[in-house]
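Next up, a specimen:

>
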Amino acid sequence: MRVIMSENKSDKPSRGRHAAGAHHSDAVPSQPAPVVPQVPPVVPPVQPTAAMPAQARPTRPPKGQEPPLRYASDQVFQPLGGMRPVDMGQAAPVRERRHKPLKILGITFGVIIALLLVAYAGVALYFTDRFMPNSTIGDIDVSLMSAGDAEKVLSDSIKDYALSIDGQGFTLKLSATDAGLSIDENKVVHDMLSDMNPWAWPFELRETHDETAKLVATYNGTGLEDAIRTAVASFNEGATQPTNAAISYDDAQAAFVVQPEAVGTALDADAVIKAADDAVAGLDPQVKLTSEQLLKPTVLSTDPKLTAAADSANTMIKANLVLNMAGTPAGTVDASLVSQWVKLADDLTVTLDEDALTAWVGELAAACNTIGTQRTYTRPDGKTFTVAGGTYGWAVDEGSLLTLVKNAVANGTADSIDIPCTQTGDAYNGAGKQDWGNRYVDVDLSEQHARFYDASGAVIWESDIITGKPDGEHDTPSGVYMVNAMASPSKLIGYNGNEKIYETEVQYWMPFVGNYIGFHDADWQPAFGGTLYADGAGSHGCVNLPPSLAASLYGMLSSGDTVVVHW
């Protein structure tokens, strides 16, 4: 066997793999070492010297990982002395070989990540100008379309667009031209794409994108609205308008109850226009009108204010008044009548319709007033006459009556009361009938004769007379009057404007028309009665009497006595 000698000039024998130069990078054997059987050496325990630093102390490899040692066959094994520190730099190649696979794995993973990022960015860039899958605009599928393609599709969809509105008995058809419809395709598509995030495409791909709401149609709003409003207005002329819930008087219950609201068939033009706008915005060709587009009542029966109003109204109708004229019933105020005056205000409070109440008071007054009205009566001698005009009679105080009734209604008063009057008569028998008592002076212009009846209807005085000239200017006025003064003597002065036309002394003056027409003595008249009044002897309107009979009448007559002048 050959002994392999070290190239080191030192003749000291090698100590195997633990020799000083065993791992040195320059130690290259001149010839390959022969393979010899490996025999585990017997190595005495190494006792580290005190001078050896701890970090340089040799360590035993783990059991089973000891490196094999090769020795020359003729080498004599001797116990090793103190171990020299191992150069830690010489162990680096071993650690480098151990971590190299991890480095390769890291590089491979980095390359994969880089490729994934490139792919992710590529897809994101692809969808920056393109719609995501499952994207629709109305009935148009724009999935994966570019912006330009989507714009063209939208533009083409307008060409044959028409809108049909029907339902609830209403029908209207409008073309795109009628609606003045046009679309800003670029803006619409831009707004739609901005609603999608291309960098979030993994999530966006799983979503459904309905972009109909972004389809904003621009059109001649005035033209479309005018067309719809005109059609709806025409339709509503024959339709039933909605009615609000209210309170009404129920005759059967004799009380106010809540009357429910009703929708009717009239259309709400604004609601129809909104439905049309929504359809045009989404290029929907048809609008189906439902009850949602009908005009709605604004007050519902469920409003608690209506119940409160009914309760308040029922308090008002408790009033029950009997209104009398000289003890004769002339009118009544009851629940049925008051119900016509109850008015529901805008705030659902109950008020009294003062216009309606005032109108009723006026009607009652007109029915009760007799001054100047036409009245028919029968004279004690059996003759019947009709007379109109004059200042005598009944006159209702409308203001006082209005206040009286209003307060009675507010308080629910039940009573029998007299109608307040500004002027009263001797009797009241209703409109068109005699409203004076049996005591009165009857002046018959046709007979030219006057009679004074007492309370029993007996004639207590009478005389032929001369009345005014029947020339339209000096006629004695017909009507029912009252004696308003008594004077003896008196001076009668007549004027035509500011010009005095006569001045006459009389002994007995009993006026009944103001202070210018009345009874008086006329000693200048040679005779009385007949047709003298028309034959030139007529007065200026007064009733001329013989002096003696004028004197007797003056002694019987009193202020306030009734005078009836008639033909």
Q: What stands out?
A: The first strand starts at residue 135 and ends at 137.
